Amino acid sequence: MKKLTLFLFLFISMGLFNLFNIRTTFADDPYVDIKANGSDGPLVIGNNENLSISITLQPSSLDGVNADWWLLVNTPWNDWFYYVYPDYWGYAGPNLDDVFCAYQGTLFNLPPVAIANFSGLPVGIYTFYFEVDNSPDGILDGSIYYDSVIVNRAVPYRLYGLNMGPYVDDEEDPTRGGIQITDEELRQRISKVAPYTRWIRTYGCNEDLKEAGMFAHSMGLKAAVGIWLSSDRAENERQINCLVDRYKEGYVDMAVVGSEVLLRGDLDESELIDYINRVKREVSGIPVAYADVYSIFLSHPSLIDAIDVLMVNYYPFWDGIDIEEAIRSLHTRHKEVLSASKGKPVIVSETGWPSEGEQVGNAVPSQENAAFYFLNFVSWARANNVDYFYFEAFDEPWKAEYEGSLGAHWGIWDRYGKTKPGMENVFAGRTMADNWSSQVPCGPGEPSIQFTYVPPKGSFENLEGKVCHVNPEDYRVAVYIYVLGWWTKPYWDEPLTTISHSGDWECDITTGGVDESATRIAAFLLPKGYDPPLMSGEETLPQDLKAHAVAYVEVTR
Fold it and tell me: Is residue 536 part of a domain?
């Protein structure tokens, strides 16, 4: 509660009071209090919950002094409403100059009394104010004594967490350095997502983002505060010091020490672990995590020993996986990480699907696919009790320079804060049926592989096939074509083809030279983990290949 006495210097900036010239609060100053459902806030309420606003006043030495009494509410759209005794709410729009005071008269002892009840509030953040000022002229002036309470009217289903990149305007780019957004812009953007999530996660602790934890807490959210580690040691020090300062203020619920540092090669494992251990010494009592792609954790067991929580990035899109197979692939990867996690908590720190941009393999960016993936992923996470941070809150235009056009289109909301079509299904609480669990195509039996479509000689179409009686997650297909010798397909650095949950698979066999003139095609069903021989025109296929295959098929055309 804010029991502050102020010489008024009040102006409005995007719907917020900005209060300056604060002087000391004395024991004989009035006690002004406002509560929401009996709470000092922040209060989170659902769609069917009623909201009761109550106020209390103890005027102390100002008992009997004539004053203006004010009851105001700022809405999610930065509009103002005002209360006029006994039962009228007026609309003032965005300008406080148009508000009216609730009552003009002497200050007196007012025990807790409910002055407003609401039901069915639209989704968003509301701030209620109770104020008195000792200049009874119907204008917000004089010495003001005030209190406020924040109410977060949430959606039926709130995400566990959201990755919060707030750089939504064309000129905002965190890689340029300096201040890119103001604290007020950051607060507004967090307030937009606050009804839709329980946590936010940030990627750095700098002038732009340092107040994110404070704003999150003020709206009833938790904050996973990240520090951006790189090869710049001086900047790393500034990031760590910022994190520690925010921790001491009580605004850090989890510390994320670096994001994809090992993937980028900015630090080696021992350097990263040194930073992690240092942060752990300085922020005791909260979990310390590191975030990176799943393969990094599988290959760095010492890193797992150093952290409290594994923050794991899964991107079936970047792996070029078809939208229908994406969550099945993520499910498989997640099980691998769980097996390697040594019993420590595993949180999905990033996953998502772009709504526009360039296709990657079989992964097609589109609004329909982005909405499907969002619903599919959250359904999987809810069914498997997996905590997660979805990537990401808003479209961020600056990323197009580094990732191509698709980099600017990962948001649930577009850059203007508009929810993209189809995303609302998740927030309404809808889920979809299990399409990620392992199944054995064709039922029990001896493993087999067959071609379902062999392109004619001279064609550039893809080879298609099907496997039966094996778990597709545990096997891969190696394909070879014969053009004056045997050649690995599709590529040397991509010698294996994944199998869909239905057992179907597809391989591009015309990726170079005169591949379309191949006279023979062979495919081998191999256990995952076996590295097939790479062929570049040899006359015969190695016996070791057939020895490791559980089934194979060959055709001449």
Answer: yes
